Protein: 4Fe-4S dicluster domain-containing protein
Organism: Paenibacillus monticola
Amino acid sequence: MDTIKITIDGIETEIAKGTTVLEAARDQGIHIPSLCYLKGINHSSSCRICVVEVGPRLIASCTLIAEEGMKIQTNTKKVRDARRTSVELLLSDHDRECLSCSRSGGCELQTVSNDLNIRKVTYVGEKSSQEKDYSSPSIVRDASKCILCGRCVGACGTLQTVNAISFAKRGFDTVISTAFGRSLAESTCVNCGQCIMACPVGALTEHENISDVWKDLADASKYVVVQTAPAVRVALGEEFGLPVGTRVTGKMVAALRKLGFDKVFDANFAADLTIMEEGTELISRLASGENLPLMTSCCPGWVKFMEHNFPNRLDNLSTCKSPHEMEGAMVKSFFAKKMGIDPLNIVVVSIMPCTAKKFEGARDELSHEGMQDVDWVLTTRELAAMIKEAGIDFVNLKGEAFDNPIGSGSGAGVIFGATGGVAEAALRTVFEITSGKELDTIEYTAVRGMEGIKENIIELPNGQKIRTAVVHGLGNARKLMEAMERGEKSYEFMEVMACVGGCITGGGQPIVDARTSERIDIKAERAKAIYSEDEAQSIRKSHNNPYIKALYEEFLGEPNSHLAHELLHTRYVKRSNY
Ligand code: FES
C-alpha cells in the first residue's frame, strides 16, 4: 500500500495514498462535522460544514485528497466560524418546527447545530416555499425542510439509477425536483425509500398510516390482523436503543398483541407459500423453456423498476404476489372461512421494512372480490412510533409466539429478508422436489454475501443446470438487465432486491445517521441476525411447514392450482420511463 505523511492538528500521521482529509481525520479520532457527505453516494461538497484550514485556505475536507506533507488544522477560530456561518445560513431557510418533526432527535442538522453551539438563528430573510408532496402512497416530500445537500439525489441516481429526482433551477430558487416538476406519484420513483434513508433531515419521510391503523384498532366491528416481514425483527430493537442486529421477534409479537391486534401472523408463512408457488413455477418454466429467466417478484421496488425501464421483460417476472400480499389473500379467504368471519370486516395490516410495500398494497391488481389483500402497510419505524405512543416498555417485554393457522414460517421464510435469501429458500425446496427425497443440505452459501451481483451455476439432482444471478441494489440490477439486453448474459433464475443488502436495509427500517453507518456495517449485522434466526428454527424448509401442507390439503389443492392462481398470482403494468 502506498502511503503518505500528513500533519493534522500538529500530529504527524501516515495514511494510505488517496485518502480524503475527512477520512484521515476521522481515523485519528478527530471529529469533523459533515452534512452533505455520504460515503459512496454523495460527494458534492455543497454544505461546507466540513471545512478545514490548509495553509491560508478553507477547504471542504470530504472531497480533499490528502497530499504528502499537507498541514491541516481542523479546529481554529476561522474553521469554527466558517462552519457556524454555513449552518446558520441553512437554518435561516429551514422549517424549524423541530418539536413536531418526525426526525427530531435523529436529525443530522440538529446534531451539527448543537455540536457547534448555535443558540440563535442569526440570519432572517426570505424563505423558499413549496407545497408538500403527498401524492405518493409511499413517500412524502417536504421542501421546507430540505437543505439541498443532494444526498437523496445521490441515493436515487448514483446508487439506484432510478433518477426520479434531481436538482432544478438556480441560486435561491434551487429545488430538488422530479422531471418537469411533476408530483412524485407521476414520476419514475419506485418507492424504495433509499432517499429517506439518505436524507439527513425531515425533508423525506414515509407516508404515515399510523392514525388509519389506530382508527381500525379502535373499531369494535373490525377484526384486525397484523403480519410482520422477516427483516423487521432484526431492526426494530434499534428504535429502542438495542444494538444493531439484535433479534426481537418475541418482543415484537408481544408488543403487537398489546397494541390490540386480534391476530399476529408471521409473513414468513407466506414466504413459505411463495416458495411453493414460485418453485413450482420455476420447475414448469424450466420444463417448457418459456419466459426464462424466472425473475423474483417479492420486491415491489424492483417490480416497478421493471415496469418503467424494461417493460419488454415483464413476462419474466414470476406471477407470484409478494409474500405479504399472499398472506393478506389467505387471511381474507381461507382464514376468514375457517373462523367464520365476514372478510369485509377484516383489516390486514403489514409491518414491513419497506416503503414500496405501501404502493404495492394499494395496487388495483392486488385485490380480490373488491377487497385489497392488504389494507395498511406500516414501516418498522411506524411500528416503533406506535409502540412508543402506547407507552409499552418494549425492551422488558417477555417474548411471545405468533398465532396460527397461517402465522408460522420456516427458517427458509426468514432468510427472505437478506439478499440471496429467496434464492436459497427456493433451492432448499426445488432440490428436494426434483430429487424426490429429503436432503441433508440446508445452507446454499454460494448465494449468500454482499457482493452486488452473484452468479452461480447450480446443478439439480436430476442433472439440470440452473444459471442463477442474485442481485441487490437497483444500480446493480440495471447493469445486469442491460447486459442481458445486449445478449452478454443469460440465466434461468434471477433474484433481485431493490435495496443494497435486501429488505434488511429497506427504506422503512430505522434510519442510521451517516457517521454511524461509516463505523458499523449495518447490513452485515442485520444479515447475521437473519441467518441466526433461521438456524434457531426447527423447520428450515418451506415445504416442511405443516401449516403450509394443511393449507394445500384443506383449501388450495396443490401449488399453481386454479384457486392458487386466482388468489396468489398477479400481473404487471407497463409504465412510462420519463
Ligand atoms: Fe463536506 Fe458537506 S461539504 S460534508
User: Anything to note?
Assistant: The longest helix spans residues 268-288.
